[in-house]
Amino acid sequence: MQCKPFLWCLLVIGVFVVGAQGQTAQYVLSNDDMAFPFLTGVGVFSVGANGVPSFQQQVQTGTYGAGGGYFGMSRAAVLDDSSQQCVFASEARNGLIVGVMVSTLTAGPGASGSSTDSGSTNGIGLAMNSNYLYASFSSSNTIGTFQVQSGCSVSFISDVPVLGILSGAINGMAIHGNMLIATYTDGSIESFDIANGVPVSNGDLQLSTATAASQGATYANGIDITSDGHYAIFGDTSTSLSIEVSDISSGRLTKTKVYKSNAAISSSDILLSPDETILYVINTQGATVSALFFDKTTGRLSPGCTSPRMTGLSQSWSYLGSAALINQSGNGGGVYVAEFGSASGVGMVNLSVSGQKCSLKEAAGSPVLDPNTPGLLSIVSFPPRSF
Questions:
Q1: Residue 320's closest CA among 261, 267, 366?
Q2: Using one digit for the tens of pLDDT, what is the confidence trace for 174-191?
Q3: Is residue 41 within 8 Å of 74, Cβ to Cβ?
């Protein structure tokens, strides 16, 4: 699934910064992804005691975004190590990756890939570890490898061409250890060895089980990976809620097992809770959020709960984007959700769990309007989850 051409896309990032008194302050940052002729930037939202964000300022980056793209593609990546704390954002019209230093909220110089790398149509996805940043260029169907530098900057190394089995474009990416996993818009999935930096295919390119069974009516989109690297989880774009799980303990993708439910519509974006007991599912076309119980030992999913329809559908926004955790411990306490439309905002859904029962409820004060863009797609958290 991708955004409508006449709408804009945005990225929101949850950020935590240690203040002068040693306390941790929480923020939400947004990569506005504004298309030409509007300059894009990264917005900063403070988060109060009730968890609801409010706009604080914008960091100008001086270039242009794509104004649209695929739901499973995260347009930012975060780095939180002992040497530096950074938020990297892709700016698709110019093909740039720009880093913002969290401590000063200033942007560094951008870096581009090769002269043929392009994501101007549907965006540039990002995934990273402490040494390398990877960019999925949706128009050129390439994955670019960038070396992480000091000062929240990156330098280009090389790119590799990629393509789905049915010529699908590169979409979402996720990293665990020496493995990078990608989805394609035709429902293909593939893993790569990144032990030496530049991705090398593991030779496991395949159509997901749900895609093959539905003859293309369902396709893998968003990706998450368990902390031990045992399972890769895919959120599908579908007419129902469809989640697929692949055992990757061998170092390669295996045939996915499918979990389906009629409780919601579509499931393009997913996010594991910090304790891996809950899989948050963003029902991108159904205007709801679901929570499934997850067994990290067996990789099995079981029914959980689905929120009521979120405030403002059709009047203010059209689709839900991806999610960011409210808390970085336990079951996460719920999620922030990107709301994509003419009056975009950040929704907030709280989770309550009792045994094998749960409930999801939109928080008071949600959604919060984003003043810098008429569209919102991707969200992540910083400091990131521990895996």
A1: 267
A2: 999 999 999 999 999 999
A3: no
